[in-house]
Write a sequence for this structure.
């Protein structure tokens, strides 16, 4: 199935949203351009143009009907999507194509874990979108991630991953814990340390064969994501070994593994999906796109057994997010930039959110009914539009580095080893740092 999107422990599947107000089809008719006067260097004899979009996993454009709608608005243009399931496969290929200047699509999807490396080393190979999109329309930190020191913008923001906590109300009830989302939020209001304390409460009366969390590595990513300074400092120096956020996340992950609060499952693996289906997981760190993963993998039998509340603590966090870039070597640069502008406009981002649950980075979408009034029936009608919009507005600006994704992947692997193999924390950390140092030099 072409519905998995993975990078640095990240993946997606379809989420179905229930909203009120305008329909997606009505929204799609706004925010578009009627100007079809671009150069047609790759048009056929009849003036027809085919725009290619290469991306990874699931950006949601087909699911939201956006490519078909764009063709209706621009009859001379057909959009074709080339999707690679795994971003770890997609990105090396993209680098090869950029290096050779051939094989590139008109529009390329860019993952946030790679964007700093692309800004630093490949910016001159992308069209500057600073005059095409209004960067002020997006959450303040989003477009800064894709902007060079001299103001060139190589990618228009698609989605972001504001954090929440998904929890199984049936398991919470059996363990004697509160199930109301406000009461759960109060129990973890002190931060991720409180989250582990709640896990210890859960363990005392946990139903047999169940676990408080799916993965300590997921909690690690959530902890680190709530801090502005993560793996690099402002000068571009790797600081992951002494980073307070990394140390906090690592120590909490080690504690969770030691206290057997985690089932020790690599997220998005087959065993992880099976555990959701069997109902053995009580909580999952939940960036916006994760709700779709849970609903699809847990299946209809678990509908209504899950809920969503705010993330632990008072510091907002973001996990994930992507961009659309236009390579200069593409055949239809002018038309491609227009398509990117349209796809990242509020109305289209709201349509994608409604179709698959990817939360918009364009602030203008937050007041549209399909976002503002969004609820998830699967999660007891959790008001996700409100939860994620409130979180998105206060997410700190993160310092990104060129190898963020590789560092996250390596640390997550070693956390999984602590959970699954009983590797001692010191040994796991030593293995992680040695592997990372080989990658970053």
């Amino acid at each position: 199935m072409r519905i998995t999107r993975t990078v640095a422990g990240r993946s997606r599947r379809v989420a179905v949203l229930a909203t009120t107000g305008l329909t997606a089809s009505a929204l799609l008719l706004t925010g578009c351009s009627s100007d079809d006067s671009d150069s047609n260097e790759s048009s056929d004899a009849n003036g027809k143009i085919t725009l290619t979009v290469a991306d990874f996993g699931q950006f949601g454009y087909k699911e939201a009907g956006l490519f078909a709608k764009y063709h209706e608005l621009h009859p001379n243009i057909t959009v074709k999507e080339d999707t690679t399931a795994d971003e770890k496969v997609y990105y090396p290929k993209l680098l090869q194509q950029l290096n050779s200047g051939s094989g590139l699509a008109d529009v390329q999807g860019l993952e946030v874990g790679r964007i700093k490396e692309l800004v630093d080393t490949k910016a001159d190979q992308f069209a500057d979108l600073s005059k095409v999109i209004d960067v002020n329309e997006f959450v303040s930190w989003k477009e800064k991630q894709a902007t060079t020191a001299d103001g060139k913008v190589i990618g228009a923001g698609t989605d972001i991953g504001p954090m929440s906590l998904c929890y199984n109300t049936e398991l919470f009830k059996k363990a004697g814990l509160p199930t109301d989302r406000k009461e759960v939020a109060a129990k973890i209001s002190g931060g991720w340390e409180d989250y582990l304390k709640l896990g210890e409460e859960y363990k005392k009366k946990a139903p047999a064969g169940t676990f408080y969390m799916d993965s300590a590595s997921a909690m690690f990513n959530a902890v680190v994501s709530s801090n502005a300074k993560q793996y690099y400092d402002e000068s571009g120096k790797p600081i992951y070994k002494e980073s307070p956020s990394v140390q906090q996340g690592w120590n909490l992950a080690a504690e969770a593994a030691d206290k057997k609060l985690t089932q020790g499952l690599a997220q998005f693996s087959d065993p992880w999906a099976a555990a959701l289906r069997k109902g053995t997981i009580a909580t999952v760190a939940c960036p916006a796109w994760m709700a779709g993963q849970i609903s699809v993998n847990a299946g209809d039998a678990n509908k209504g057994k899950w809920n969503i509340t705010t993330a632990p603590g008072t510091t907002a966090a973001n996990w994930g997010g992507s961009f659309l870039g236009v390579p200069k070597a593409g055949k239809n640069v002018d038309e491609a930039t227009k398509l990117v502008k349209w796809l990242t406009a509020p109305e289209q981002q709201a349509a994608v959110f409604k179709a698959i649950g990817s939360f918009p980075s364009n602030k203008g979408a937050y007041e549209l009914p399909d976002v503002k009034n969004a609820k998830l029936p699967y999660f007891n009608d959790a008001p996700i539009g409100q939860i994620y919009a409130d979180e998105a507005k206060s997410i700190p600006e993160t310092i990104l580095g060129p190898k963020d994704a590789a560092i996250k992947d390596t640390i997550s692997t070693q956390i999984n080893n602590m959970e699954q193999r009983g590797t001692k924390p010191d040994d796991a950390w030593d293995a992680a740092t040695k592997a990372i140092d080989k990658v970053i030099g």
